[in-house]
Amino acid sequence: xxxxxxxxxxxxxxxxxxxxxSSDPFNSARAAYFHRSVGGYxxxxxxxxxxxxxxxxxxxxxxxxxxxxxxxxxxxxxxMPIESITGVAPYGAAWFVSDVEREATTSEELAAxxxxxxxSTAVVSSSVEGLEPVYDASGTIExxxxxxxxxxxxxxxxxxxxxxxxxxxxxxxxxxxxxxTPSDYFAADYxxxxxxxxxxKHTVEWRFxxxxxxxxxxITAVASIAILLGLIAAIYFALRNxxxxxxx
Length: 248
Hints:
- The mean pLDDT is about 90.
- The protein has 7 helices and 14 strands.
- It is an alpha+beta fold.
- Helix 6 (about 105-110) links the parallel strand 5 (about 100-105) and strand 6.
- The radius of gyration is 25 Å and the shape is globular.
C-alpha cells in the first residue's frame, strides 16, 4: 500500500469506494486489492457499467460518482475526499429518494443520469410497476455489516419509503429480506438496486448465492459419500485379503 492507501484504510466507514487516478482506473486492478474500487479490470465486462464508465465516469461526473458512493480519489500520490474536488458529497451506501423518473428505453435511462438529481430521484424503467409518484425520504438508513456476499442495513422511516442501494443490480444470485421476510427489488439509476421499504425500524439483508448452488452442493455431497464408502470398502477388502491363513 502507498501512503494514500494507508490513509484511506484508516477510514472504517463501511461501503465507500475509491477512484484511483494514479493509473488508468478502468484497466488496473491495483486499487481493488486495498479498497472497494470504482474501477478495476476484468476480461468479462459488465455491459451497463461499461456504458456508465464511457459516458459519465470517464468525464468525472459528480452525480454518478456520488451515487457510486465514491469517497476518495487517489491522485498525485495523495488521497483526497471527492467532495473537495467535485463539490458533491457521496450519497452513502444507501439513501432514500422522494421522486421517480420513469424512462421508456435503456438509452433514455442512461441519458437521464446526466440530468436528474440522483440523491432525490430514482431513474427506473417504465416496466417497473406499482411505484408511487412521490415518497417520504426523511428516513435514515445505515450499512452495519459488509461482506462480498452479504450486506446488512438498519433503517428507520416514518412512512413507506423508496431506497436506492449503491450496489450493482445483478438478479442472478442476489436476494433480499426485510426482517427475514423475502422481498422484491428492481434496477434503478441504470446499474444500481432499489426497493420499497415499509415504515418503521427494520433490518434489510442482501445475500448472494450462486445460481444452481443447491444442486452443486448436493452432487458434491453424494460424490464425497461415494468416495468415502469406496475407501472404506477398499480398506475392508485389503484387510480381509491380508488376513493370516491358519492350517487345520
